[in-house]
Amino acid sequence: MSLTAAPGKLLGEHRRPAASLALGGLALLASWMGHRYGGYYVGTWAPAALITAGLLLLLAAAGALGRMRSPWGTAAAALLTGYTAWTFLSLLWSPDRGEAWQGAGLTLLYLLVFWSALSLLASGASRRWAFAATVLGPAAVAAATLPRLAPEAEGMFVNGRLLGTAGYFNAEAAFLLLPFWAGVYLAGSRRVNPALRALSLASAVLCSQLAVLTQSRGAVLVLAASLPVFFLLSGQRLRGVLALLPVAAALVITFPGLNGVYLSGGGAPLQEAVRSAVPHVWLAALGAGAYGITWALLDARWRPPAGVARAAGAVAFAAALLAVAAGGAAFYAREGNPVRWGQEKIEAFQNDDRSGQEQSRYLSASGSGRLTMWRVAWEDFVRNPVLGVGTHNYEATYYRLREERAGYVRQPHSLPLEVLAERGLVGGVLLSGFLAVCLAAGLRRLGGLNAEGRAQLAAASAATAYWLVHSSLEWFWQFPAIGVPAVIYLSLLAAPWTRREDEDARRRPEPSLRAAGVGLAVLMVATALPLYAADRYAQQSAAADNPWVALERLETARRFNPVSAELPLREAAILERVGDWPGATGAYAAAIRLSPEHYAPYAALAGFYERHGDAENALRLYRKALELNPLEPALLGKVRRLEEASPSSPARG
Q: Is the pTM of this model over 0.85?
C-alpha cells in the first residue's frame, strides 16, 4: 500500500469519527493558545501553525481536500486565499518587513484552519463535536485560572480588572464569551448527551462570570447585540430561553461581588475581594450544571405536547417583552430622555470622559483613545488607498500622524480599519468578501434545516456576529485563541449542511486542491519555523547571564529572522554593555534600516550617542525621532535640553 493510500483508507474506514476528532482538536488548539497569552506571541502561535500545517498535509494525502469543493466553500476558500496572498505581497511595500512577516504568518494560520475545518466538515465531521470543543476548551482554561486569581491577584489584575491568561482585558473577555451561544445551543438541545448539556451550561456560567471581572464594556454590549441573531435564527427559542435563565440568574446574584473586585483598588483589599468572590463563581457554575443535568434527564423522559410548547414559548416571549419594558421604564426613571442620554454617552466616548467608573467601569463610556487610533487608520487608508501602509505597519504611522496622545499603541483597535489601513482596498474587498460568502452560505440554507440544524446555524451565526462586531472595536486578529474559533465558526457556516451537498462535493475532482494544500502547508512551515527558531534563540539570549553567550544566541536569531528590527536593538544593548561601541553603533543602524519609519530605533541610537558624549549626533537623531513622533514629551525634553547646551544654540548666543 502506498503512503498516500494509507491515510485515505484509514479515513475511509473511520471517516466521521476521525474527522470529528481532528476538528475538535483544532478547536482545542485555540484553547491551548488561550492559556498562553491568547497566542499573541510567535513562540505560541508558531507551534500551533506547524501542527495545523501537519493536519493539512495529512488531509491532502488522504484525498480529503476535494470534498470541500462545494460552490460556497470554494468561493470562501478562494477569497481568504487571495487575502492571504495579498498579505504576503504586502512585504514588498512594508517599511518594517519583520512586522509584516509575522502578520502574514498569522493570516496564513487562519487560512490553514479554514481549509482544514472545511474539508473535515465535508468529510463528515460533527458540528456538535466542534461546538463542544469550542465551549469546553475555554471553560477548562477558566477553571484552571480561577484558583490562581487570589494568590496571584497582583499579576492577574490591573486597576481591578482581570488580565487573565490572554494578558489583555478585552481579549480575555472575548476568549471567554465567543463560544457563549454555542454553549447555549448545546445546553438546550435534546440530541446532546445529558452530561454534555450540563457541562455546557456550567461552562457558559463559569466563562461569563470571569468575563465580568475583565470589566470589558464592549464585550457586554456585543454579547447583547448578538442575542437577537441567535433567537431570530434558532428553531428552539424556548430552549434557548431556558438555557439562558441560569446564566442570567447567576450574573444577577454574583455581580455585586464581582464588581467589588474592580472597586477594591489593589493590594490586600483586591486579594480579599477576589477570595470572597471565587467561591460564589464555583457555586454558580455547579448550580447551573445541576440545573442542566436535571433538565436533560427530564427532557429524556417527557416531551411536552406541541401546543404546550408553543404556549410556553409565547409566555416566555411575553415575559421577555415585559422585562424589556420594565427595564426601559426603570432606565427612563433613572436617566431621563434616552436620546439625550445617548448623545451624552457619544460625547463621553469622543472626549474620553471616564465619569461613572467610580461605581463600575460598565457605567463609563470613555473611548480610551480609540477615536485617535481610528482617525490615523483612516488617514493611512486615504493616503494609501490601494496597497495600504503594509501589514502590521500601522504603529509607526500612529505616532507620526496622531493629534492626541493615547499611550502605547500598535494596532488601530478595529479590524475593518486595520485591514484598510495596512492592506488597502484590495485587502478590504477580499476579506469582506470572504466573510460575506460564509454568512450568506449559512443563511441561504435556513429554510431547509430542521430545528436542530437551525439551532446550530443560529449558534454559529451569533458567535460570528459577536466576533465581527467586537473585532470592529478591538485588535483581536492578533490573538489566534480568538481568531481560530471564529474561523471554525465561519467554516461551519460555509461547509455543506445536507447529505446531498456533501455527496455532490465529493464527486468533484481534487488533484489541484491536493497540490494547493501541500503548497500552503509547506509555505506555513517555511514561514513559521524560522520565526519560531528566532524567537527561541532570542529567549535563550535574554535568559543568559554571560553576555557573550547572549550575543551568540542573538546572532543565531538574526540569521533565522534577518528582517526583525527588534533583534538588532537587543544586540546593540548587549554590545554597548561589553564595550563594543562600534558594534553597538552598527546594530542600532541596522535597526533603523529595518524599521526606517518608526521613531524608536532613532531614539535608541540617539540615547547611545548621548551616553557617550556625542551631543551633535544625539541631537540630530533625537530631532529625527521627534519628526516621527512629534507629541512625545520625553523626546521634546531631550531635544530642548541638547539644543540649550549646544554652543551654536541661539539661547547660548
A: yes
